[in-house]
Structures are given as C-alpha cells and as structure tokens.
Design goal:
Elements lengths: L2 H8 L1 H17 L24 H12 L22 H13 L11 H15 L7 E5 L2 H20 L3 H4 L9 E3 L4 H9 L7 E3 L11 H10 L5 E6 L11 H6 L6 E6 L24 E5 H4 L7 E5 L2 H8 L28 H35 L4 E3 L7 E6 L3 H11 L5 E5 L2 E7 L7 H14 L2
Parallel strand pairs: 2-3, 2-4, 4-5, 5-6
Antiparallel strand pairs: 1-7, 6-7, 8-9, 9-11, 10-11
Helix pairs in contact: 4-13, 5-13, 6-8, 6-12, 13-15
Organism: Actinoplanes lutulentus
Family: Belongs to the group II decarboxylase family.
GO biological process, one term: amino acid metabolic process
Length: 456
C-alpha cells in the first residue's frame, strides 16, 4: 500500500475528527461568514505526483480554496432558490459517503428499500396518491427531464408507436404547452430530441405568470384531438405564481394530454396551512418534479420525480444487460433514471425527515414565508423601490430606479447578503428567495439594512 494511504488508514479516526472539527468551525461561523465571495482568479496548480496525505490536503484546501467559497449554507444567501443542510441531513450526507452504497440496484443491500421508503414519505407529505411512484435524481432539471421522457413515451402510446425503440422521429410533430415554463423544461426538450421549438407558450392571466386555462383549452382544441404534453407550474421562479392545477387537469375530459407539473419548490406550499390551496390538484398530475436541495434543506444534489406510469418509465430507462436481469414488478432504480451508478441521495432526505418530521419541516416553510413577507413589507416602504408582484410564497421580486447589476454586485461585496438579478416583464429586477432552515427575522433586518445602503 502507498505509504501515505497506509498512514491515513492508520490515522483514520484522527482524520475524521480533524475534518469534523474543521466543518464545525465553518458552520459555527456561517452567520458571520461573507455570504458571497469574489474568488478572484486562481491559476490551476499542476497535477500532484507526490501527495501530501489527507491532513495535508485538508490544510491545503483551507488555505487555497475555502476562503473563496460562499456562505450559501447560511441564512442570508437569497440567490436562486437555495436551501442549506439541516443538521440531520448533513449527518445523513456524511454517512452516504461513508457507506458508499450504489443505489442503482437491490442486490446485497437494503439501500434501495430505504430510497423507496423515503419516496413514500415524500409522496405522503405532498399529498400525492398511492398510485404515484418516485425515484431520486440530481435536481429539478433531471426531474423535469425524466417526467417529460415518460410523457414522450405516453405520446407514442397514444399514437401507436414505441418511442424508446423507434425513436422520437416516429412521433411526428410534438406540441408542448405551458404558460411560464422554467428554463430547465426547455433544456429537457432539447435533450429528449423533442426540440425547443416544440414548446408553445400559452397566454397567461393579466398581470400574472399563471396560465390562462381558457386560452390553454383553445390551443388544445386547435390540435384536433392530437395528444400533447402540458407543463403546468406550481411556483414560478420570479413571482412564485401557481397555475390552477385542478382546472387544467379537468381539461383532460375533452383533450388528450400528459400533465407534467413543475413543482420544484412550490410543492412545499402543501406544508403551510395558509398556502396549501396553491397546490390543490397536484395529485391529478401524470408526473411531478420536486427539488429537495431547495426547501427540504438537504445537501446538493437531490431531487425526486413522481409519476403514475412506472411501466412507461421502465420502458424508457430500462438497462438491458444479462447481469441486471428483468426489471420485474419492483424494478431496480437503474431501470428508472438516466443514471446507472448513483449515490444514495435518499439517505440525507431520510435523515432529515426522520429527525424533524412533517411538523419540523412545516415550521421551516412557514418561517421562510414569514421572512419573505417581512422583506416585502420593508421594501414596499422604501422610497424608489417597487414590488413587481405580491409576495405569494417565499420569493420577493422587486425593482428600483438605480442600476440593478451594480446593486447586485455591491450587495454581494458587502458580505451581508446575496440576491440574484432577473428580468420580469421586461423590467430589470432583483429577487430574494427564502428557503434556508436557519433564516430568522433578525436575518431579514440585516438584509434590509444592506439594501437601504445600495438601492440608490
């Protein structure tokens, strides 16, 4: 054995303790760590031929790379839609690496059963029916891709072709309808061979990002009975608007379409008593996307996809190899997603759900919504600042009379907060997204103070 490797094996307990101590220092200081960093430009180091051992690598990371890492795990990182990692989720993630299970199959390990149990918990938490099955994937993009791939196979079923065997060309023209689709949906259409041009934007309600259901019905009527895919939104990125899922689903009595719901973070509205009505009808979808490294607060990367048609899912993703065997009634996960080898992402989610339950995660969701509402109130009272939409859930979208790009940079350079820029209805804007388990009212007030300084 290499001497450095042998030495690390002998010192394994001490190495893990040193890593634990270093991680603890990072986490205890996260509230005061700069939320965003300008890492500058580091020239790549040459490939090391003589290593420095694990302790040396830890020291080298702390010196060379850690100073440039953001405080994205902390309470005032409001860019994108980024959660943190609850203590239990972090423990589960550490054990994920420790046990290093390949979650692709059911041979010789109970890890696949743990994933099934976790998916069942999530299904129940989001009030989906028992006919939904699900699988862990890397994020919302892959969850949307899997859901739309199953929808593509469903189109073939309606038209008498098997896309998984004959190819997407056998379908002929495909129509995908949506009001305000996330960019990952468009990316998925490209990857699936359906094509970006297959997406047809349907008019939205006046002043809203929610689709006009009457307009959707009109477009479906134009298709003359040809099956389509409808992508509904349960929480748009800019304003967290929700399509009327129940009304859209009711159109299937007249028109044939696969209903995919992008509920990447909006699904968590189900946990808030005051907002659960926003996801009414989610259980009527054919496939659903939920991103877990957002509001479930598990480490990157983690998402789940749900569908009613596991048979079609297996048809798309089956890995036909002699050593894998037939999928059978309880297929290995290798037959359900684009990945073959895959880490046991479910373990971090299992840990945080087991540790805090629905009630604990409900408290996080409700507190984050309250934080977003408070920021919205503070911004509405600032001269020159305009809220571009109501604060419907956990995102505050606003603009002001100054330079948005310069403000984003100045806010980041302050180290106090991080927001991302956007454009809403042609207006340059900023958005603050609350999804971290640590965020408090005090954090909101700190963000307000830095915004007062830079929104001029």
């Amino acid at each position: 054995m290499d001497p450095l490797l042998a030495g690390d094996l002998a010192a394994f307990p001490e190495l893990l303790q040193a890593t634990r101590d270093y991680a603890t220092r990072l986490l205890l200081g996260i509230n005061e760590r700069a939320v965003a960093r300008d890492p500058g430009t580091l020239s790549p180091a040459p490939l090391p031929f003589d290593g420095v051992g694990a302790a040396g690598a830890l020291a080298l990371f702390g010196e060379r790379w850690a100073p440039g890492f953001s405080g994205s795990a902390g309470p005032r990182y409001l860019g994108f839609v980024t959660g943190g990692a609850t203590p239990a989720a972090l423990a589960g993630d550490w054990l994920t690496g420790t046990l290093d299970q390949n979650g692709s199959n059911r041979s010789g390990s109970s890890s696949a059963d743990l994933e099934d149990e976790t998916v069942g918990w999530l299904r129940d938490m989001f009030h989906l029916g028992q006919d939904f099955t699900g699988t862990f994937v890397s994020g919302a993009t892959m969850s949307n891709t899997v859901g739309l791939a199953i929808g593509r196979e469903w189109l073939g079923e309606q038209l008498g072709v098997e896309v998984a065997r004959q190819g997407v060309g056998a379908l002929g023209p495909v129509t995908v309808l949506s009001g305000t689709p996330h960019s990952s949906v468009v990316k998925a259409l490209s990857m699936l061979g359906i094509g970006r041009d297959a997406l047809r934007l349907v008019p939205t309600l006046d002043g809203r990002e929610a689709v006009d259901v009457a307009a959707l019905a009109s477009v479906l009527d134009e298709l003359g009975g040809r099956p389509a895919i409808v992508v509904a939104n349960a929480g748009t990125v800019n304003t967290v608007d929700f399509d009327d899922l129940r009304a859209i689903a009711s159109l299937r009595s007249r028109y044939p379409f696969w209903l995919h719901v992008d509920a990447a973070f909006g699904a968590f509205a189900a946990l808030s008593p005051s907002h659960s009505h926003l996801v009414d009808g989610l259980d009527l979808a054919d496939s659903v996307c939920v991103d877990l490294h957002k509001w479930l607060n598990v480490p990157y990367d983690s998402a789940v996809q749900f569908t009613r048609r596991r048979d079609l899912q297996v048809r798309v993703f089956q890995n036909a190899a002699a050593y894998l065997g037939d999928p059978g009634p309880n297929p290995d996960h290798v037959h359900l997603t684009p990945e073959n080898s895959r880490r046991l992402r479910a373990l971090a989610a299992w840990f945080t759900l087991a540790a805090y339950g629905v009630d604990g995660h409900r408290e996080i969701v409700v507190r984050d919504i309250s934080a977003a509402q408070l920021l919205g109130e503070r911004l509405a009272a600032m001269p020159g600042v305009e809220l571009l939409s109501p604060v419907r859930l956990n995102v505050v979208c606003f603009t002001f009379s100054g330079d948005v790009g310069r403000a984003v940079q100045a806010i980041a350079e302050s180290g106090e907060a991080f927001l991302t820029p956007t454009v809403y209805r042609g207006v340059p804007a900023l958005r603050a997204a609350f999804s971290n388990w640590r965020t408090s009212r005090e954090d909101v007030e700190r963000v307000v103070e830095v915004l007062r300084k830079h929104l001029v």
